[in-house]
Amino acid sequence: MAAPQVSAAQAIGEYLQSPDDLLKISAFRKKLEKEKASIDARLKSGVKEQLDATREGLTKLLGTRNNVQVIKEEMQTVDRMCSDPQIVVSTFDQISRVSMVHRNFEQTEEMVNNLLEINSKLDVLEELLEAESRIIIGPAPNLLPIHFHINRLEAFRNQTMHQAKKASANSRQKLARMFERLNKLIEDFETYIMELARNVLPLVRAGYPQVVVKLIKIVELEAREDEKAIAIRLVKKAAKMDAASKFKSMQANARIIKHYRSKATKVISDSIKANFDDAYARHQHDPGAFLGGLGWIYQDLIRIESDVVPCFPPSYEIHAFYIKEYHRTLNATLQRIIESEPDASIMLDLHAWIKEYKKSMKELNVAPELLDPPLLGGEEQNLIEDYLKLIVKKLDEWSANLMKTEIQEFTTRSDPPEVDSDGLYGTQGAVILFQMVNQQIDAATESGQGAILARVVGEVNRVMRSIQDQWTKVVEGELKKQTEKPEEVVGGLAEYCIALANDQIKSADNTEALLGRLEPLVSEKYRTPIGEKLNDAIDGNLDVAKKCIQTFIDIILNDLKPAMKQLFQPTWYDGIMEQIVLTMQDYMAVQSYINPSLLELLVEYLLDAFLVTYLTALANCPKLRIPAATERIKEDISNVFSFFSGFKPTKELEPYFEVVDLILAMLEASKSMVFLSFWAFAKVHGPCIPFVEGLMKVRGDFDRSAVSEVMDSIKRKVKDEGLTDPPEPTIMKKITVQSTLSRFLRT
Fold it and tell me: What is the largest CA-CA distance in the chain?
C-alpha cells in the first residue's frame, strides 16, 4: 500500500504543538533548509550519474546497431555468393555434401583428441595457476599462457556442448562431468584475475607494471569476445532461419558473457574502499591521527598517474576513475568522522586538512569536476578559515621578503656583520621576525579563542621551521663553496656563521618568552599543542645554531688540512703544532663577539674535532721513531693544552686529554709492560683492538714478532676477562683505523 500523504500543515502541526514551540521556528526552518539542500545535492548527483549511464548506454547501443547492420549486409553478400554456384555448377550439392562430410570427420577427430588430452592439459594449467595465485604481488610470468590455453579449452567446451544439444541426456551429462574440472579452473582463474585487479597499485608499487598490462590485455580480449557473442546473437534473432543455418559458427557460439571490464573496475573500487576502511579502523578512536596519516592518498595518486595510467588504454580514463573513487570514498569517510561527533580540535584539524587536500589536488593538476561532490558538501568554509588564510598569506609573504634580504646579505657578505648593543655579531633578521610574529600572535590572542591561537602558533611554527631549513641549506651551500672553490668565495663566512648562530639563540630566547606569555592565557587543551609548536621552533633554532658552530669548526679544519696531513710524517718531528695552534688562535679571535653559551659549545666542538683528527692521524701513521715520537706528542699536547686553557679551566680540560696520556703510556711501555698500559686504557675506552694493534705496529722499536707477541697476550686477556666496550661511547668510537691495504695504497 502507498504511504498516506501528509500535508504541509500536518507536518508543521507535529512540530508546533505548544506556544513555546514558536520559539523553535528559526531552528526548525534551518533544519528543513539543511535537509532540503542535502536532498537536492543527492538528487542532483543521482540524476547526473543516471544521465551519464544512459548516455553511455545509448552510445554503445548506437554502435551496436551499426555493427549489426554491417554484419547483416555482409551476410547477405555472402548468401548471394553462396547461392550462385548452385546455378552454375550442376554437381555443387554433391561437392557441398562431400565437403561437409570431410569437415565433420576432421572436427570429430579434433574433438576426440581434445577430449583425450584435456585432463593432462588441466593438470598443467591447474599447477601453473596455483603457483601464480600463491604470489599475487609477483611477476606472474605464466599469466598470458594460462589464459591462452584456458581460452582455447573454453572455446572447445562451448562448441562441444552446443553440438551435443541434440545428443541424449546421458551423453550431455557425461560431457558436463568431463568439463567440471575446466569449469572450476575457469572460476579459479577469474578469481585470480580479479585479485590482480584488486592489487593493481601494489603491483605497480612493487615494480610489476607488466603484470597490470597483461591483466588489461586479458580483460580487453574477453571484452571483445563478449561483444562478438552479443552481436552474433542479435544477428541470429534478426536474420532469416535459412540464412542463419548456413553459418555453423553462429550456432556453435555458446559463450558465457563474462563482463571482465565492469568486474575489474568494481574490484578496483572495492579495493579503494577497503584501504580507507582499514585506515579508519586503525584510528577509529583518534580521528586526528587518521587525518594526519592520509598522506598516502597523494602518494597513491602520483603513483597512479605516473605508473598505472600507462598500463591502461585511454578509453578506460583510469586516472579520472581513480580520482573519482578516491574522492567519493574519502568524502564518505569524512562524513563518518562528522557523524561520530568529534571534539572541536578535530573539527579544526578537519578544516585544515580539507584545505590542504584542495591545495594538494590543485598541485596535482586534478580537474575540479572530478572532485564532485565537494567534501562535506562544501560547508567547511567559515570565518575562522578565512581568518587563518589571511594569517598564512601574511606570514608567508613577510617571511619570504625577509629571507630574500637576509640570504642576500649572508651570501654576498659585502660588509662585516653588525654588532648589537651587547657587543655581539648579529643581524636585523631576528628582530624583524619577532615583530612580525608578535603582531599576529597578539591579534589571535585578542580573539579570545584558544583554537585560533593554537592554529596561528602552528602557522608561526611552520614559518620559523621553513626559515630554519632555508638557513641550514644556505650554510651548507656556502661551506661547500668554501671547501671546493675557495678562490671564488667571498671572505667572512666564519664571522657570518657566528652572527647567524647568535641570531638563533636570540630567537630561541624570544620564543621561550613568548611561550611563557601565552601559557597562562589558554586552557590545558590548547596549552599542550602551543607548547609543542613553540618548543619545536626553539629546538629548530638551537639546531641551526649548532649547525653554524659546526660549520665554523669545519672552516677551521679545512684551513688546517695541509698542516694536519703532516702529522706523524717525517716533517712532523721538526714541529708543526705551533702553526696549527696559531691558526686556531686567529679564528678564536671572535670569542668576544659570540654568545657565551655558544662560545662554550664552540670550544667543546673544536677540542673534540682536534683530538679526533690528531688520534685518527696517529692510528693511520707510518712507523714512529721511538722515543722521538713520544716526546713530540708530549710537546704537541702541551701546546694545545695551553691554547685551550685560555677558554676552559685546567680541571675541566684534563679529562679531555686523559686519552692521549693513556695512549702515550702504551707507546712508551716496554714489550713486557705494554699490557698494563693497555689495561688502563681498555678499562676506560674498551679494547679497541684494531687501534691498539695499529699502534703497536707503528712503534719503530717493535719488530713483527714483538707486535704479534704483545697482541696475542692482549687478545687472550680480553677474551678471558670478557672485556667489552663501555656503556657510554668515548672519543675512541670516532677514530677511524684504516686497513693494511689502505695504508699501503696511501703510501
Answer: 128
Residue 426, classed as helix, strand or coil, is: strand
CA distance 438 to 445: 10
HSE-CB at 176 with a 13 A cutoff on CA atoms is: 8
Of these ranges, 115-129, 408-422, 437-451, 729-743, the one predicted with the greatest mean pLDDT is 408-422
Instruction: Name the DSSP letter for residue 419.
Output: E
- Length of the chain, in residues: 747
For the entire predicted model, the pTM comes to 0.50
Predicted pLDDT of residue 210: 93
CA dihedral over 81, 83, 86, 87, signed as positive or negative:
negative
325: phi then psi, degrees, rounded to nearest 5: -65, -40
Please tell me the distance from the alpha carbon of residue 115 to that of residue 685, in angstroms, as a whole number.
81
| pLDDT at 106 (0 to 100) | 61
List of residues 6+ apart from 371 with CB closer than 8 A: 323, 327, 358, 361
Q: Look-up: residue for cell 683528527?
A: 613
Is pLDDT of 130 > 60? Answer: yes
**CA 15/CA 512 separation, integer angstroms:** 56
Lowest mean pLDDT, pick from 82-86, 197-201, 359-363, 469-473: 82-86
| Cβ pair 348, 383 in contact under 8 A | no
The residue among 210, 245, 249 whose CA lies nearest residue 228 is 249
The cell for 194 is 580479479
Residue pair 664/630 in contact by the 8 Å Cβ criterion? yes
Nearest to 735 by CA among 706, 702, 693: 693
569 grid coordinates:
710524517
Distance CA 294, CA 97 (A): 71
Query: pLDDT per residue over 671-708, tens digit each?
Result: 888 989 999 999 999 999 999 998 999 888 888 999 89
Q: φ and ψ at 286, to 5 degrees?
A: -140, 75
Cell numbers that stand for 402 in this block: 625577509
Distance of alpha carbon 551 from alpha carbon 571, whole angstroms = 29
Identity of residue 478: E
Q: Match 552481436 to its residue by C-alpha cell.
A: 231
Alpha helices by DSSP H, listed for 645-735, are 650-668, 674-685, 689-698, 704-721
Q: What is the DSSP string of 163-225?
A: HGGGS-HHHHHHHHHHTHHHHHHHHHHHHHHHHHHHTHHHHHHTT-HHHHHHHHHHHHHHHHH
**Lowest-pLDDT range, 70-79, 203-212, 362-371, 633-642?**
70-79
d(CA 243, CA 85): 16
Q: Are 686 and 732 in contact (CB under 8 A)?
A: yes
User: Which residues have CB under 8 Å from 67's CB, separation 6+?
Assistant: 231
- On the question of a cis peptide bond just before residue 627, with omega within 30 degrees of 0, the verdict is yes
Cβ-based burial of 570 (10 A; exposed 0-12, middle 13-18, buried ≥19): exposed
What is the rounded (10 degree) CA torsion for 349, 353, 355, 357?
180
Beta bridge partners of 425: 419
Q: How far apart are CA 134 and CA 129, in angstroms?
A: 9
* Cα–Cα nearest to 357, from 286, 298, 290: 298
